[in-house]
Specification:
Length: 175
Amino acid sequence: ILTQKGDYPAAIRPLENALTIADRHHFFQAKQEADMLYFLSQLYYQQADQAKGDRELQSAAFTKAIGYIERWFSVATRPTEDISVYYAQLLYAAAVAKDSAHPDAALIHKARLQVEKTLLMAAHPKDSVYVFLLATLQQETDYLKASEVLELLLAKNPNNKTYWQDLNMFYMALA
């Protein structure tokens, strides 16, 4: 009822209570549990996004969102490309939220590893996945690998002016 009303923050507590009770009694099947975990992760991600002025609340919400999606990966039988990217974006957002000038290096690295896993999930990954990989590589100042990714993107789409500008920037940084 709360989610139908659009009161997502109020829906968190009953969902968590239901999950806690179900865990004790092994009530839900794997699919139901996975759906609930994914939804809770999204709710906490939304809460973190809305708490931009309050770092403590934002950090706690990101921690919960990450915890639920990591638990989702332990329950889900076949992770999808979209959920894998969601997890990487969640890690990246949490890293930047801690300090936008100096993001959490461990979370950025974890996000990059997750993006690289995502690339292996599809025969032809979306350009947006490669662009997200570039963002993580740029945060890690791995300009050599970033330039290789850009060269790959340019081989697929040589008319993209932004890619050429970014590649030039990375080459300048490498020089």
